[in-house]
Design brief:
single chain
């Protein structure tokens, strides 16, 4: 199933900031959209959930990857494909990612989550922009992403994922359920100069 129309709830049950009466995730300095954190950056000191002042809620740290490959297309043209995952509990298409385990580095978590959700053993490439948003529990969640190529394995659903597959870049952008994932994908596209 593909993504549905924008709704009240975003990924992981987070409130969609475009819904009336909802508080948006932190935005960039211009207020144009969700902030893309610099590597290692967290929420502003003293900032509580949804930008309120007061004691800060703990930052939920997560990591993932954009697994890509160059694939020969008919007629000798060459294109790129990425691995997307479908999570039945949210009925969404997203990039593979997940929360860090205690004592785990962001890079190790990204590799582990990609393998757990897709069956692909990844090889880390360049870091891509991080995303930051408010999860369904009202906590700030930051996900760091890396470009990855395949060391071994092939996509197949596992863990909380019922489908993982190679998708051409142009189709992947349309399939992704969340704008923040499309922004990460666009950064990869720019880096590949496609």
């Amino acid at each position: 199933a593909g993504p549905g129309p924008p709704g009240r709830y975003a990924e992981d049950g987070a409130v969609n900031p475009s819904s009336q009466g909802c508080t948006p995730a932190p935005t960039d300095a211009g207020g144009a959209g969700p902030a893309l954190s610099a590597p290692g950056a967290g929420p502003a000191p003293g900032a509580g959930p949804a930008g309120q002042s007061g004691p800060a809620e703990p930052l939920v740290r997560a990591a993932g990857g954009v697994v890509w490959r160059r694939d020969g297309a008919p007629g000798g043209a060459t294109g790129f494909e990425v691995v997307l995952v479908h999570r039945p509990s949210y009925d969404d298409w997203s990039l593979p990612k997940g929360k860090l385990e205690a004592g785990e580095s962001d890079e190790a978590a990204a590799l582990r989550e990609v393998e757990e959700e897709t069956g692909v053993v990844g090889r880390l490439g360049m870091e891509l922009p991080a995303t930051t948003y408010i999860d369904r529990s009202g906590r700030t969640k930051r996900v760091r992403y890396w470009a990855m190529t395949v060391a071994s394995g092939s996509p197949g659903g596992a863990n909380e994922v019922d489908d993982a597959r190679w998708v051409p870049l142009d189709e992947a952008s349309r399939m992704l359920s969340y704008e923040r994932d499309r922004e990460v994908l666009a950064a990869l596209v720019g880096a590949l100069a496609v």
